[in-house]
Amino acid sequence: MKIATYNVNGINGRLPVLLRWLEEAQPDVVCLQELKAPDEKFPLSAIEAAGYGAIWQGQKSWNGVAILARGVEPVETRRGLPGDPDDVQSRYLEAAVGGILIAGFYLPNGNPRPGPKFDYKLAWMERLIAHAATLFDTDAPVVLAGDYNVMPTEMDVYKPERWIKDALFAPEVRAAFFRLIDQGWLDALRAKHPDETIYTFWDYFRDAYGRNAGLRLDHLLLNAPAAARLADAQVDHHVRGWEKSSDHAPVWIKLKAARRKRSAT
What we know:
Helices cover 23% and strands 26% of the residues. The chain is α+β, with helices and mostly antiparallel strands.
């Protein structure tokens, strides 16, 4: 199964890019972030025409997440991250597809730092860590896929010295990310590319994509059953270079088919 995460940065404005990539890449599951559209503006007919079922949680102008599944309807298991009933931001969806539990989310940016947006980011990460702990020991494979708005290490940042004061690279944020990892989650992309400079985001300014001056913000974390099936993890770098593309590129993993249990003789 091929599972992807893709911050589309406005699903309606970049719909042709999304559809082109879906046709080219043929992912089985896609977690989308930054829909920037209310529920009623989600382009369901176009997504269905491309062969995908979908669930989504929209929000006017900002945020918004969706999970697409090729040829089937995702079975929604959770809408919204638990821990704060007053949180109205559309950032978290969870669904079962083909025996795999998939959480798709858009973690807050947190800038400016310090300030209320940074405090919200840290609190959101605490909620994610708490909920992820309940998912990790699930017998089924679990994938946490999304735009984490975190560069975990200096290897994940072009010129890290320029990001010291930014909420995406703050020590508190990176520490929270590794507390999540320390539950036992596998960072799939880094596991397959341990020593490579590999980015998933390039700003629109100063020819960042052309210079490969990027950031690694988009991650897929796997629990033990999912990690045991990991076959590949890649970034569709070239998609960032398409006309009117998002500033993120799609990131995907491939999981091997589950081994069938031998029947007793």
